[in-house]
Automatic annotation (TrEMBL):
Keywords: Cell outer membrane, Membrane, Receptor, Signal, TonB box, Transmembrane, Transmembrane beta strand, Transport. Belongs to the TonB-dependent receptor family. GO terms for cellular component: cell outer membrane. It is a multi-pass membrane protein. Residues 38-60 are annotated as: Disordered. InterPro entries: Beta-barrel_TonB (IPR000531), Beta-barrel_TonB_sf (IPR036942), Plug_dom (IPR012910), Plug_dom_sf (IPR037066), TonB-dep_rcpt-like (IPR039426). Residues 78-192 form the TonB-dependent receptor plug domain. This is TonB-dependent receptor. It comes from Altericroceibacterium indicum. It is found in: Cell outer membrane. PROSITE patterns: PROKAR_LIPOPROTEIN, TONB_DEPENDENT_REC_3.
Length: 993
């Protein structure tokens, strides 16, 4: 690809960023709402990209081209890997409070996280974490870069948080839809997302934006400001930016089925397992308005003669209304006649806890960025950057803290006398009880991520043996501090003591004298009486669970690129380089969760308590652990671009090949490579391209050195001795893990700038990925059984079921066992019409689509069959997903319309749907179900802008215009696919001087 740029049209140190797909022809022009407000550099780049993606060989003044997904820097280079470009105009037209939301809409991005994902979590540490996932392979298999450089992880999985990036200065985002490990190293299995900043911005620009949902929540505020100026005759250039964003989030609703803001789409849908396989009816039933019958909002007796007695807010007993016309059996098991195991349909739903989940985490972010560059020679620069940022998030995982299966003594001092009498009449001294503990309030999770990232580098161009060579050296040091604090959560063993109340000397106290001596305060759980402050502090101390994590990343990278030889069809281009990377993390947690023996300087506010377990795991949730780990990476790469032919009869073609040798301190040496090429056919504007690659992902810090989590398994089956034993399951890292290996293949056809179809660009690419040695966790039983049958010998060292020196244990670890096979098709199309119907301005149409033909996961566990999740709308890989954009703009205003859509799907491809009376026998691999359907969704977004003055633009945006509700699922809702917020209004003002 050769692009002519006239002298002075762009800053002489800027390099034109393009890609190997048709989007190079339409980058940064999909929504040109106020092009006149952009810097001269950005506008020039957009114009050149739109005019000449397949232009003729360049003459003097041709700029080199940097292609994300390749290290080749050379005019005339065509990358074979499809890449989607999102330009600054499209970013601005989307008017999102976080640039992550704009990029995550792309169809090839499946399974990305964000502020609406992980909101139900207490312990993951990923609440509000914005990270990308390409091809549904997960964020850990997508490499995210900033100006082609790595970014320190914001989580021990190694993924960065896009909220910490300097967003106002982003002028372009390249999304490489294919493996790029040979060029960029580990993690680029699904592809690369590269954020490109305007490093030589001149002037002052800013943005002030606000937003709110149609339900009056998730108030959003965004303030951004950036400035850039050159000194010393343009040799010294400084850029600074700062931004503050505040998204209030959407909190949980009340108990029952009422969501926040009056949203009425929640139906407590549940998948019931009848556990009957061959009676002609479905084994699984997918039904709405499920009612768990082992707890209620203010308490329910769940078994025995008094089963079905509930308590209202005032503490008065009443007969609970079971759904399905159910009646309590009164047996010790607590079953309900006429209901399904564990659930009824309808009835009193007031105790359901799922409606208490946050729909979106609240996110506050403060970001500062600066860059100082000095041209010590023409086309040679030394520079330094800093990116200091903070992101705070909060969420409510669920309503209350439900505790079923509690044993309550009939002599409990808080129990109404009528119930005590019924106990006596029935001849019982205790009963089983369940409550969602509404009286204790709701747990809150707060995260605080702070990033300190510094980069220093040299880059430029030097003549070597008669040809110009580009070099790029940088050193990056990044540190991320992540604090997780949980408030309003119980210590389960203290709760168990506090609810056992007796009367002593006329005063209600805790029954256990040891508990009383250690500060126990009694708690009344029969009804909705507000507990005393002393009882709340005993059960839920203000110094709740916490985790303190520090991660560091050091990277030194040196790359060279040039064209040493002119061959028969053009220059031979070469890129080579080396990189060193060191990753480290350490984490501390509170002693009630991590264990008293693991006390640290942070833990002095947690007093010893003989009623708590010294080993930790005392909290209802959020039992964080201590740990640390580190690894180093040394690697070198070589990339070649060989022109094959270039003439008018057969067109122009090149072969691009790369190899990378990587040495991991934990797992040794591994290689990655790619071979591909492009062929510009003699039919002008038509190109064929293809590439196949071997890509790798090394195990991350979490997988290698996970802080241990301990669980007691009282009736664990020992297949070696055919007995049940007590086992301690220790979830730990596995330092023996080896890198995952992927084979990526892509081939397709692209059409752009054809004189016989002016203004139209089109590409169709087929992709296929096979991921082997995939790192996945196994349960304790799986580990023992796989050793027992001889399938996984490595697992045999992970347990001891006859330990003479301590408790029996199983170390629950991840292993290189599973695999994924996926394939599909990407389609992109655009059309740009200057002066449509004689009107001044530009009409732009653009569409992107991804069709997933299959997404097959094989756990590697004997007795299971591979599972195809393509088209399963419970996940992130629907059959079809597309994004379409239409925009019109002129010098005064712009109008913008966007459609997001994904196809109908199923609950699972392994299910056999059938009606009662006609079902075949249900099996483990192909169970029967009454319905196997989840509707897709269509969302319409509209926006527009008005150029108030030269450099000042007012704009608006409405997302989900029709307020389309999400499709319920057995797991509440799937925010990976569905919009859970509803209609959102945004408006703001931008300026650029």
């Amino acid at each position: 690809m050769r692009v002519k740029i006239s002298a002075g049209s762009v800053n002489r140190h800027a390099r034109l960023m393009v890609t190997g797909s048709l989007t190079a022809a339409i980058a940064m022009m999909a929504c040109p709402s106020h092009a006149q407000a952009q810097s001269a550099q950005t506008t020039s780049q957009a114009d050149q990209q739109s005019e000449a993606p397949f232009a003729a060989p360049a003459s003097e003044g041709t700029q080199d081209i940097v292609v994300t997904g390749s290290r080749i820097v050379s005019s005339g280079f065509n990358a074979p890997t499809p890449t989607t470009v999102i330009g600054v105009d499209e970013i601005e037209a989307n008017a999102q409070p976080n640039i992550f939301n704009t990029i995550a809409q792309l169809p090839s991005l499946q399974g990305s996280t964000g502020s609406t994902v992980n909101t139900f979590s207490t312990s993951s540490g990923q609440q509000g974490l914005s990270s990308f996932s390409l091809r549904g392979l997960g964020p850990i298999r997508t490499l995210t870069l900033l100006d082609g450089q790595r970014v320190v992880g914001a989580n021990v999985t190694g993924v960065p948080d896009i909220s910490l990036f300097p967003q106002l200065l982003i002028k372009q985002v390249d999304v490489v839809n294919g493996g790029a490990s040979a060029s960029y190293g580990s993690d680029a299995v699904g592809g690369v997302v590269n954020f490109i900043t305007d490093t030589h911005f001149e002037g002052i620009k800013g943005n002030v934006q606000g937003g709110i949902t149609t339900y009056g929540d998730d108030e959003q505020y965004l303030v951004q400001l950036a400035a850039g100026k050159s000194f010393l005759d343009g040799r010294l250039h400084a850029v600074l930016s700062a931004e503050y964003g505040d998204e209030k989030g959407v909190g949980g609703g009340d108990f029952g089925i009422g969501l926040a803001g009056g949203r009425d789409w929640f139906r407590q849908s549940t998948l019931f397992n009848r556990n009957v396989l061959n009676d002609g009816s479905p084994q699984y039933l997918y039904l709405d308005y499920a009612q768990p019958y082992n707890y209620t909002k203010y308490g329910l007796i769940t078994a025995g003669p008094l089963q079905g007695t509930a308590f209202d807010q005032a503490g008065n007993p009443f007969a609970f209304e079971y759904g399905s016309n159910g009646t309590p059996s009164g047996d010790a098991a607590g079953s309900v006649n006429g209901c399904y195991p564990g659930f009824c349909i309808g009835g009193d739903l007031s105790g359901n806890v799922d409606a208490g989940r946050s729909l979106q985490s609240g996110v506050k972010r403060l970001n500062t960025y600066g860059r100082l560059g000095f041209d010590f020679a023409p086309n040679n620069e030394i520079y330094a950057t800093f990116n200091i940022a903070q992101v705070k998030t909060h969420n409510q995982p669920v309503g209350g803290m439900n505790r079923p299966n509690l044993t309550i003594q009939c002599s409990n001092a808080y129990l109404p006398t009528s119930i005590q009498q019924e106990c006596a009449d029935a001849g019982i001294t205790s009963f089983t009880y369940g409550t969602s503990n509404a009286i204790l309030g709701n747990t809150q999770v707060h995260t605080d991520r702070r990033q300190y990232r510094f980069v220093g580098g040299l880059k430029g161009e030097v003549p070597v043996f008669g040809s110009d060579w580009n070099y790029d050296f940088y050193y990056e040091h990044g540190t991320n501090y992540t604090d997780v604090d949980i408030s309003n959560i119980m210590l389960s063993r203290r709760f168990n003591q506090a609810i056992q109340a007796i009367t002593l000397d006329g005063t209600i106290v805790c029954a256990d004298p040891v508990a009383r001596a250690n500060g126990c305060q009694p708690l009344n759980i029969f009804g909705g009486q507000t507990p005393s402050p002393a009882a709340l502090e005993y059960i839920m101390p203000s110094n709740g669970p916490y985790q303190r994590t520090r991660q560091t990343q050091d990277v030194a990278s040196l790359n060279f690129s040039g064209s040493p030889l002119d061959l028969w069809a053009g220059p031979l281009s070469v890129a080579f380089g080396a990189e060193f990377r060191h990753e480290f993390y350490t984490v501390y947690a509170d002693p009630y969760g991590a264990g008293v023996s693991e006390r640290t300087p942070y833990n002095q506010d947690y007093p010893q308590d003989p009623l708590l377990l010294d080993s930790g795991n005392n909290w209802y949730a959020g039992n964080y652990k201590n740990g640390e780990g580190a690894y180093s990476v040394k690697e070198a790469f070589l990339e070649l671009d060989l022109p094959l032919f270039d003439n008018s009869a057969i067109g122009r073609a090149n072969v691009n090949a790369a190899g990378r040798l990587t040495d991991y301190s934990t797992s040794g040496t591994v290689t990655a490579w790619k071979v591909g090429g492009t062929w510009d056919l003699p039919i002008e504007g038509l190109r064929l391209r293809g590439v196949t690659s071997r890509d790798v992902r090394a195990p991350n810090l979490s997988e290698l050195f996970a802080a241990p989590v301990t669980t007691t398994l009282p009736n664990f089956f020992d297949p070696f001795n055919n007995v049940n034993v007590l086992v301690i399951a220790n979830q730990i890292g596995n330092t023996e893990l080896t890198p995952e290996i992927a084979r990526n293949t892509t081939f397709g056809v692209a059409l752009a700038n054809a004189p016989w179809l002016p203004g139209l660009s089109l590409s169709v690419d087929y992709y296929k990925i096979k991921l082997t040695d995939m790192i996945s966790s196994l349960g304790a039983a799986d580990i023992v059984n796989l050793c027992y049958v001889g399938v996984l010998p490595d697992a045999c060292s992970a347990f001891n079921l006859n330990n003479q020196n301590g408790p029996n244990y199983v170390n629950v670890q991840a292993f290189n066992l599973a695999s994924i096979k996926t394939e599909g098709v990407d389609i992109e199309a655009s059309y740009r019409w200057q002066q449509p119907l004689g009107l001044d301005g530009t009409l732009t149409l653009r569409a992107l689509a991804t069709h997933i033909r299959k997404f097959v996961t094989d756990t590697g566990i004997p007795g299971t069959i591979p599972n195809d999740s393509a088209g399963v709308n419970l996940g992130s890989t629907p059959d079809w997903k597309w994004l379409a954009v239409q925009s019109y703009s002129n010098d005064l205003f712009s109008l913008y319309m966007q459609e997001r859509w994904f196809s109908d799907g199923v609950l699972g491809n392994n299910y056999v749907q059938c009606d009662a009376g006609s079902c075949p026998e249900s099996t483990v691999n192909h169970p029967t179900i009454n319905t196997n359907f989840m509707a897709g969704a269509f969302y319409l977004d509209v926006g527009g802008s008005l150029n108030v003055t030269d450099g000042v633009t007012a704009y608006f945006k409405v997302d989900n215009v029709f307020n389309r509700d999400p499709e319920p699922s057995p797991y509440f809702v799937n925010p990976n696919l569905y919009d859970v917020l509803g209609r959102v209004f945004r408006a703001g003002v931008r300026f650029n001087f």
